[in-house]
What we know:
- The structure is a single chain.
- The chain is α/β, with parallel strands linked by helices.
- It has helices at about 10-15, 30-35, 40-50, 70-75, 95-105, 145-150, 175-185; strands at about 1-5, 20-25, 55-60, 85-90, 110, 115-125, 125-130.
- The strands form 2 sheets. Strands 3-2-4-5 form a 4-stranded parallel beta sheet, with helices on both faces.
- Bound molecules: iron/sulfur cluster (2 copies).
- One iron/sulfur cluster (SF4) binds near residues 169 and 178.
Amino acid sequence: MIITKKKEPSLILEYLDGRKKVYLFGCNSCAEQCQTGGKRELDEMTVILRENGKEITGTSLIDETCYKMLVKKEFKANEAIMSSDAILVLACGAGVKTVAEIAENSTPVFPALDSLFLASVERYGRFFEGCSLCGECILGSTAGICPHTLCPKGLLNGPCGGVINGRCEVNIENNCVWVDIFRRLKAQDRLNVLKKIHPPKDYSNGVKPRKVILERKKTRA
Ligand code: SF4
Ligand code: SF4
């Protein structure tokens, strides 16, 4: 899940300066769960903007605002979107980009949120970063725990010299990730995998923008 946080209303009002009619997009997926872009947040944003003299021309809560076909459908079904002076998107950056691509050069699109990280969800409202999308996953030899993400120094071959009683010297409230990796591998009787030396990350795998194009699978007759 993509974790987002709300931008300050003052910054949003700065974006919308000189623009009266505003259309709002939310996202009923990640942003809804982050309490940043669901129905309640659309209603809250409507109140804030109205109090500041804006006219809300409409709101759309898309199942996944990063999904171009869904957003396109909304644009087609709703003329108010394109006749607005601005579109404000309560979704992650991918959602904002998707809406902006469809609005093209006509109506400016602004973000209401900051996108933070890709999270594992412990349970509702408890999100923890676990993967930095590096493009060459080493979890097979680190017991499913990512040192690239969870060690503040990104160390791939064991701990630094700063471990304090099993804790991380950078974030003392956290375990050193390498202590966790060691303990889990030991419990699994797999400590031998620690002998494997991981080369430095190949950052060419992460050259942006990345894309994946899948061939549509043929269905059997
Ligand atoms: S090594 Fe870590 S950052 Fe890279 S893909 Fe695996 S979990 Fe994600
Ligand atoms: S103590 Fe462990 S988690 Fe913290 S920086 Fe050193 S190796 Fe990384």
